[in-house]
Amino acid sequence: MLINRRIAERIASYAELDENDVVLEVGCGTGNLTQELLRFCRVVGIEKDEKLVETLRKRFRREIEDERFSLIHGDALKLDFPFFTKFVSNIPYEISSPLIFKLVKHNFTLAVVMLQKEFAERLCNEDSRLGVISKAYCRAKILEIVGRENFRPIPKVDSAITMIIPQPQIEVKDRERFEKFVTFAFSMRRKKLSTIVRAFEKRFGISLELDDELANKRPEKIGARNFARIVDGIRAS
């Protein structure tokens, strides 16, 4: 849990909130970030831990009564997201990947999230499944690194405040097919693309048009735009 109030203040500031916003916060914890967000706008929180839910209900009793804070007890990965304009969260490390994939497929204007530093770097780069797929949906940027000493219990790694803007960085005709091929390719990341394409064709019964210049490269070396080119060249076999 984030214990440094100044960092919570900066996260809220990065989100550029106003009274018309509705923020979705996943993993509210004891409410330190929630408190900062409520200074600006309405907040909808999702918290899985029953004890923390009770803590939040007591801490924000007045805000709940005033309908400024809505608290949902449940698993954010299993629930349908309610309406929100911005997403601001200190995301639990263990659900970062599935939650980000879920988030980027929703309509929102801006997200500011605290992520594990290594995960944030993968999201922003193009040498991983996460980084490549995300480029079809959004642009991500690390705003600042946050030391592990700002959390309790103290984790083994540092974190990064990361901004996500729903601006696709590449054009993909079929996102479902794109995600399928990227996921398959990175499951064989030590293989060359020529081998990966043949295996993909054999398993799924489709053909890919692979440029000779990419044939001997590995998935982490070609970038999101080349993945899109390969997928858009797919034809039924």
TrEMBL record:
Enzyme Commission number(s) of this protein: 2.1.1.182
Enzyme class name: transferase
Protein's name according to its UniProt entry: Ribosomal RNA small subunit methyltransferase A
Family: Belongs to the class I-like SAM-binding methyltransferase superfamily. rRNA adenine N(6)-methyltransferase family.
Ribosomal RNA adenine methylase transferase N-terminal domain: residues covered: 7-168
Any matching Pfam family: RrnaAD
Keywords (A to Z) from UniProt: Cytoplasm, Methyltransferase, RNA-binding, rRNA processing, S-adenosyl-L-methionine, Transferase
Domain of life, per lineage: Archaea
Gene behind the chain: rsmA
Keyword NAD attached: no
A GO MF label: RNA binding
Classification via PANTHER family: DIMETHYLADENOSINE TRANSFERASE, DIMETHYLADENOSINE TRANSFERASE-RELATED
Binding site for S-adenosyl-L-methionine: L2, G27, E47, D75, N90
CDD domains: AdoMet_MTases
